[in-house]
UniProtKB/TrEMBL annotation:
It is found in: Cell membrane. It is a peripheral membrane protein. Keywords: Cell membrane, Membrane, NAD, Quinone, Translocase, Transport. This is NADH-quinone oxidoreductase subunit C. InterPro entries: NADH_DH_suC (IPR010218), NADH_quin_OxRdtase_su_C/D-like (IPR037232), NADH_UbQ_OxRdtase_30kDa_su (IPR001268), NADH_UbQ_OxRdtase_CS (IPR020396). One of its GO terms (molecular function) is quinone binding. Belongs to the complex I 30 kDa subunit family. It comes from the Bacteria. It comes from Deinococcus sonorensis KR-87. It catalyses: a quinone + NADH + 5 H(+)(in) = a quinol + NAD(+) + 4 H(+)(out).
C-alpha cells in the first residue's frame, strides 16, 4: 500500500479496528472471518457499497501466505470515492461468512467464487454454480485443477466438443457454440451471421 493510500484510509481503519495489509499496492485491510460481518455492516452504515468479490489461490506463489485461499471484497464509497479491499484468509474448513445479509450485490459475486474456487459462503441463500456446467467436477481456478479438454453436455442439451470449438475459432460461422450446424436455440435452421466479414472490416 502506498503512503498516500495509507493516509487516506488510516482514519477508517482506526474506526474499524483493522490493520492495513502491507503486502498490497491498493488500500487493503486484513479482516478475520469472525469479524467480517461486523466490519461489513459498519462500512455499509458509513455509505460503502460492495463492488466486487474475488478469490485467490496462493498454492504456487513463490512466497508463503497464511492460508492457501483468500477472498478480497472490494468496497467503495460513491460520494468521497474512498476504496478499500477487505482481505479474508479462508480457514481450513473452506468456509467464510456470506456478505449477502449486508449487501445483496454479494449474491452472484460469491456464487462465482464458490463455483471457480470452491469457497463456501455460510448464510448465502442460493449458493449454486453460476458459470461451469452442473456436471463438472472441481473448481477450475484452483492451481491444482487438471488442465485438458473434456467434451461437455449441458443440461439444456447443448454439446461442446473441444476440437469443434477450436476449429470454430478459425471461422465466423461454425463451431463457436457447440450447437450442431453452428445454430443457436431459436434460430430454426438459420446459420449465424458473421460477427465481422472474413478478413476484417471492408
Amino acid at each position: 500500500m502506498t503512503a498516500s493510500h495509507a493516509r487516506d484510509i488510516a482514519p477508517l481503519l482506526n474506526t474499524l479496528g483493522l490493520e492495513p495489509d502491507g503486502n498490497s499496492t491498493e488500500p487493503t485491510a486484513l479482516v478475520t472471518p469472525e469479524r467480517l460481518l461486523e466490519v461489513a455492516g459498519e462500512l455499509k452504515r458509513q455509505g460503502f457499497m460492495l463492488l466486487d468479490t474475488v478469490g485467490l489461490d496462493y498454492l504456487k506463489y513463490p512466497v508463503p501466505y497464511p492460508a492457501r485461499f483468500c477472498v478480497l471484497h472490494n468496497v467503495y464509497h460513491p460520494e468521497d470515492h474512498r476504496r478499500l479491499f477487505l482481505r479474508v484468509y479462508v480457514p481450513q474448513s473452506g468456509e467464510l461468512p456470506s456478505l449477502y445479509p449486508v449487501w445483496r450485490s454479494a449474491n452472484y459475486l460469491e456464487r462465482e467464487v464458490y463455483d471457480l474456487l470452491g469457497v463456501v459462503f455460510e448464510g448465502h441463500p442460493d449458493l449454486r454454480k453460476v458459470l461451469t456446467p452442473d456436471d463438472m467436477e472441481g473448481h477450475p481456478l484452483r492451481k491444482d485443477f487438471p488442465t485438458g479438454e473434456t467434451p461437455t453436455l449441458f443440461r439444456d442439451g447443448r454439446f461442446l466438443d473441444p476440437a469443434a470449438f477450436r476449429a470454430g475459432l478459425n471461422g465466423q460461422n461454425s463451431g463457436l457454440t457447440g450447437w450442431r450446424g453452428a445454430l443457436r436455440r431459436g434460430d430454426a435452421g438459420q446459420p449465424l451471421p458473421p460477427v465481422m466479414p472474413e478478413g476484417g472490416a471492408k
